[in-house]
Amino acid sequence: MLTVYLNNELVKLDKHPEEEQITVSFPKVKEIWTESKTDLVELLYALYELGCFNFGKISLIRLANYLENVFNISLGDVYRTYLSIRGRTNRTQFLDQLKERLIAKMNKDDQK
C-alpha cells in the first residue's frame, strides 16, 4: 500500500501545473468493445506510442489492462497480436478506418 501511495504521489509531482484535477467515476454498467480484439490492440499501440496517458509514463501492459477494464474485454497476449498486426499488408487498417469515417463526417457536416 505504501508503494502504491508513493507512486501516486510521484505521478502528482510530474503533472503540469496548468492541469486541472478531474475525478472520473466509471458508470456501473461498462460499455462493451464490439470490434475485434486486434482492432483494440492496434489502437492500444497507437495511443501508447503517442504517449496519450500519464504523459507517456505508463507501461504497455498497464494501459492494456486499463482498456480491458474500460471496454469489458480480455485482450490476451497483446505482444502476439502486435506481431500479427505487423505481418499484415495494411498494418493500420483500423486506424485508417477511424480516420476515413471522421473525415467523411466532417465533410458531411460541412455541406449542411
TrEMBL record:
InterPro entries linked to this entry: Tet_reg_excision_RteC (IPR018534)
Full protein name: Tetracycline resistance element mobilization regulatory protein rteC
Pfam families referenced in this protein's UniProt entry, alphabetically: RteC
Source organism superkingdom: Bacteria
